[in-house]
Amino acid sequence: MKFVREELDFLKLYVMLSDTRSFLNDKIHINFIKEKDSIIFSQLSYKFNLITVLQKNLSTLKESFNILVETNQLFSLVSLLPKNSEINISKEEISFEGSKYQLPKYEGDYSVVDKFLLLTSSPKVEEIKIVDLEKMPLIKNYAGIDELDTIGIIENYFVASNRTDVAGAIKTSNTINDIIFLPTEIASIITSYGLKSIVLNKVEFNETIYNYFIINQTYVIINNMEYALANIFEDNVRVLYDHPTFVKINKNNLLQALTRILVVAKNNIYNRIFISFDTNNMIIESIDTGYSVEKVPFIKLSNEIQNVKITVSASNVKTILQSLQGNEVTIKISPEQDSTAISFVDENNNSLFVHTLYENIEE
Question: Residue 307's closest CA among 331, 276, 332, 282?
């Protein structure tokens, strides 16, 4: 069956969402159904199930057939062809412009694809429009792994955290009541496709709630995962970082000082630096590999934290400062010795970043 190269542009999405956690996760199944004049492309991966249905006249086929090949191999061949090239996919081979490729073929059970197609035609429990998606990639680097490999929509912020060191939240104009967790790969999709919004369709199928959305002709069905991202806006969490005492400082001045001290602090454990204050300055020290110090004048300092000394990661703080859009940064610091975290905001108040404190062990 012949395709024009552009008809197979969706293969890029399949490659982006493939993985190697199991045998089938990086394979694409192509099912030619003669009696329905339809070709169903599908991929079953760890976090996503993808289905694309193309309608074509299949009357010239002798019989229906299906093939299972490596997603990346097929995409690589197709993407290397000139625009508007014709590609023929048959049971035996992939051919174009006199060239023929017999890709390795595999076997697998794809009967679940029919169930997923029924799912996409089931009545929707809810349609949730998620907007401001261009902000989501800004928070992706704050996500962790496994049960923290997610970006949450919490109180209309995009939120991510690796739990051990940093968390970030960016304000959006969403008005969603429930907490929604999305795999971090969606941030890459947003960047690649320039998405500003998606409609997340919530359906109940076989007594299970599923969420899916559509990109061009492809159904992206999100597998149900267990995530452990905390609601950082709950009172019992907020009290850990949202302190009334603070230092306000010029962001660029602080960023320049951190960039310089990272030349040596990058070799420290956790890239750690020590931050304290004198009458007019924030003092930044690196002591693990020789002694280095930077002094940055602050704009305002709460008296209660005049004698505080905290330990943070220079690289994490640099990343946080680069994520803030304003000119002045307010770092909320507790005067209590057993404090566990500090937070960063700017004058725009559109984002929030939290950094866990390290022990003040000077050795």
Answer: 276
In three-state secondary structure terms, 133 is: helix
In a domain, 137, yes or no: yes
pLDDT at residue 362, rounded to an integer: 60
Question: Which has the closest alpha carbon to 70: 109, 113, 102?
Answer: 102
What pTM does this model have?
A: 0.89
pLDDT digits (tens, 9 = 90+) for 277-306: 999 999 999 999 889 999 999 999 999 999
**Proportion of the chain in helix, strand, coil states, percent, rounded to 5:** 25, 40, 35
Whole-angstrom distance, CA of residue 322 vs CA of residue 328: 12
How far is the C-alpha of 324 from the C-alpha of 252, rounded, in Å? 11
172, 204, 232 — which closes off a domain?
A: 232
Share above pLDDT 90 across residues of the chain, in percent, rounded to a whole number? 92
DSSP reduced 3-state for 86: strand
